[in-house]
Fold:
Amino acid sequence: MTSSRLPLLRVWPLLCLAALLVFLAGSNISAIGGGSLWGPIWSGTTSGTASSIRMSYVYSPQLVMALLSGSGLGFAGCVFQLSLLNPLASPSTLGVSSGAQLALTLTLLLAPELHASHAFAIALTGSFLAWGLVAAIGGRRLEDPLTLLLSGMAVSFTLAAVTTCLFILKDHYLNSMFIWGAGDLAQNGWDGVRFLAPKLVFGAAIVLAMSRPLSLLGLGTGVARSAGVPVGWARAIVLSAAILITAAITAAVGIIAFVGLAAPHIARMAGARRVIPQLLTAALTGALLLGVTDQALQFLLKSLASFLPAGALAGMLGAPLILYLMRKMAKPPVQPEHSLWLRPHIIRSRADQWRLVAICCMVLLVCLAIALGLPSLDLPLILDWRAPRVLTALLAGCALGCAGCLGQRLLGNPMASPESMGISAGAIMGTVLVLLILPAAGTVGQTAGALGGALIVLMSVLFYGRHQDFDPRSLILVGIAITAIADAAILIFFATGDPRVSQVLALMSGSTYRASYELLSIPAGLSLVAVLMILPALRWLDILPIGNGTARALGMPLALARTVIIISMALLTVAATLLAGPITFVGLAAPQIARVIGLRSTGSHLAGSAALGGSVIVFSDFAGRRLFLPYELPAGLMSVLIGAFGLVLTLTVLRFYGKRRRGRDTAVRGVAA
Amino acid sequence: MRHLLCAALCCLCLGQAIAGDAAARTPPRVVPLDWGLASTLFALGVKVPALAEKSGYADWVGPENLSDDVVDLGLRLAPDMERLRNADPDLILITPQFSSIVPRIETIAKTKVYATFTPEKTPLSNSIRIARELGELLNASDRAEQLVASTNEALADLRRSRETKPEACPVLVVNFVDERHVRVFADGSLYDDVLKAGNIENAWRRPTNYWGFGTAPASALLDYPDAALIVIGPTPPQVQRILDASGGTQTFDTLLHHLPAVEAGRLRIIPAIWSFGGLPEAARLAKALTSANLPECPHD
Structure:
């Protein structure tokens, strides 16, 4: 399609993929029983032998389904990226997949019949509702790519947290959702293809008819507007078409990560610049990527006879590619990093800052009292059962708040958080691995697994960062890649139908359930070491956010400073993970809040972050225990939900502020997400 | 702080002492954290004061009508510790899957571990042993022997019905996860042990997990053209529709209709039986299999 106009050099990856696909498909077909079997498929009859049934009801529909879904995902991904001017836009980063997943999970629980008969309508409704939520949160700022991405991620995390709650509470009723979430392409006949194909054609036709407005949108909102394109409407129509396509695919086969993100990038690297060639090349690339993944899986697993869903595997294989793409993107930063900081509205004196810290500590005390169940004085109950959990939550929250604060100051990036270094993901991968190898492993085994995983990740991050003078960005990139791999591994684990799904999910989402006084000592020790390490480095932390140049000019040993900070951050994260599993979000949010309320000096910022982090986790733990008593939800999930509530509140307040002082600060609202 | 800790320690000791006294209570209050153990206890006629995921238990395991005074403990693998403590058990029964919380549970009451599923992969004989041990422990040895005897009876019936059919098919025991995926039960599962006791061959040859099942695409069933297909519930509605229709006029055209077992009428559907259960579940499966009248595969 495009190869005739492009130098061969650029399209060689596509040609290689195509050749690989033909080779793999050929050998798979001959393994089933030879090419002679194609005859019966075309004529529509089956001779009834096992191999002909396999050919016409299993193999061929699956191959067609892989190519169709792949092309649809590539196409839709390209539409997302073009119309939103955002190279990272995809159904998963915009919350659309999470919306579909939540809607399908809820219907499966409440009305299984409806779920069976109307999966597409449900997925579509969920997707559009999620998108509506993103639009509502983003408000008028939706045109700003950063705001869009952040609102998308926030909605995505929140909906995913609700889904996880349902998974934990009702795991037995949701077995099929685990396989669906891992995106397996297996087919039982042509029903799936008959279902999907018309929707893809319809969606694609709408987009292709809108190709001129789309290409203008791709040049920027301003250009499009001056060319007379009704930007809002044009964008809404093409996005709706893309959402329709992805919802149809998720309803048909489940969630398939990565293809929609990678295909458009590969298409652009192959030289497709104008809109229609780019869309079509992305579709072709997507089809090739998913087709090759699916065929390679069948080719390799024939002898092993085990079950691996292609969607999750694609996510795992795609991690290095995402790493590569993000590296390329990271070079020209969208805007100078400092402007991403939420600016406090009030500048406070040092004494005022410490007074604020004292108020934070009082909030923490109130949370502690509520969580312990005071003023009830059932002392044995409180001391034996509540205190260990509350202490664990407290220590974990404080450690994460500190780690987040260190990370954000180190990287000069408010989006940095402990989990973005991949340490939490490493810890959880270690735990799951131990559970897989030793199904009856106790606390010691699981703790060792967590520690091992975290250390391996830390080592690889340090090893990788060593060459770049511990350049913050490369650290985060490794973290993202490792997290992607861990996510995929866990999806595959769930798809195997292991009966401990609910337990592992709770572990993974950060729970204080197993807390006891004995388990407190090691993490407390680690945190203490970290705090002692960081105390002499407080001055460095004051300087680092200003920028490398300043730091160097002041004679700071940059590499040493960064190593010290990274190690103590890692120690704090490991301590928190050992205590309560990987808790996301609080490491990101607590330091942000501390900063917004005006804690700027390193000392008060650290103390405030710790107190706020502790409050959030202690309260989340309490809420998780109480909400569906006696059914317990993990603190980590509750903190995400509470955080989402806080986010909506913050945005509302900021919008109100914005009305009064319009134009004061555009970046603020985006980052608040 | 020291005083507080001292007080805590005293309370702990006091609690232990009370628990020690209570062990003499008759009948002792026994709380099973695992559904399979709970089902065995019910079969032994033991009254259970608390149970995890009570509503789920009714759906998945038990015909037993749980009375309202049975306390719901919350999630099976993460029971609410405070409720467990307040249920005032004398004895807590767990499986090795709870080992990470054993130190905590032990402070509430005496805790005993019973493993139906072990690396030796002999769940049926483990279940028999567990039923006898529980009977002995709870002064219900008679009931335990009755349970073992009635289970053996059911297994013997199954074996006899098998002997009347010299050419009985090997079977595949599956549970449909969705219309495209099945869990296949084989070596190491309770279902498979029942088949073994009934002298029925399990056709599935692929590796299984710790609990004796594997997840596979439905197309994997094509690899066993000579096997009978035993579908154990719960079956998702869309699969149920297809399987129901397969006897009559064919309005669907999917792989499931062309499975050799379905085409040859070698399909048997059995209502839900908890696959991680114990002796009562084994007996139920044996009875269901006997009355399902397993098909024959004449070799020509």
